[in-house]
């Protein structure tokens, strides 16, 4: 079991404000996403990828794969989604299913690389280390996805403010944030506190301490 606690995403590039399309996707339940994807709704497929692309990409990076290999994993997971999604019995299990599929793809990629490295060598990969590493990675990915979902669940202006303050690198100056959001610079501190309270509430509902 992994303890739930909010944390930054190690090894994942910080992001700016969500696009309008991604913000709209956050309003779709997974049940609706799965149903519409199975019906062949292209907008639903775009919404699903927008909602979970950061989750999918974060996992190969945690396994130590290169950017190129991570892109290959992403493409393969998208193909798996396309072919296997109709078999998903419980739409609410979609994030966990995506994480498991992505993890399996990463392990397959690593094993293929190991076989190339060990060709003609008597050494053997330490398969016994795979299970605990995979479990840790899945726990971290689940926690980070819960954080994304919590941020997506707060009001749009709060979501933009949180992303500008904590997820952009380098962070924006207060006067630039105020201009972008159409608020007074002096009110950012107060609004920030209220938005973080809303985020803490969402995180608490998700089981974070």
Overview of this protein structure:
- The chain is mainly alpha-helical and 209 residues long.
- It folds into 2 domains: 13-152, Orthogonal Bundle (Rna Polymerase Sigma Factor, Chain: A), CATH 1.10.1740.10; 154-209, Arc Repressor Mutant, subunit A (Orthogonal Bundle).
- It is built from 9 helices and no strands.
- It has helices spanning 20-26, 30-38, 42-62, 67-84, 94-117, 130-152, 156-166, 174-181, 188-205.
- The longest helix has 24 residues, at 94-117.
- It is globular, with a radius of gyration of 19 Å.
- The two termini are 15 Å apart.
Which keywords apply here?
single chain, mainly alpha, Arc Repressor Mutant, subunit A, 0% strand, disordered N terminus
Q: Show unreliable segments.
A: 3-23, 122-129
Q: Kindly report the name of the CATH homologous superfamily of the largest domain.
A: RNA polymerase sigma factor, region 2, helix turn helix motif
First CA to last CA: what distance?
Answer: 15 Å
CATH class of the largest domain: Mainly Alpha
Structural class: mainly alpha
What's the overall average pLDDT, rounded?
A: 80
Q: How many strands, which pairing sense, and closed or not: the largest β-sheet?
A: none
Which architecture of the largest domain does the CATH hierarchy give at level 2?
Answer: Orthogonal Bundle
CATH domain fold name of the largest domain:
Rna Polymerase Sigma Factor, Chain: A
Q: What amount of the residues lies in strands?
A: under 5%
Radius of gyration: 19 Å
What percent of the residues sit in helical stretches (DSSP H or I)?
Answer: 55-70%
Total strands: the figure is 0
Outline, from the CA principal axes?
globular
Total helical segments = 9
Order of helices and strands: HHHHHHHHH
Total number of domains: 2
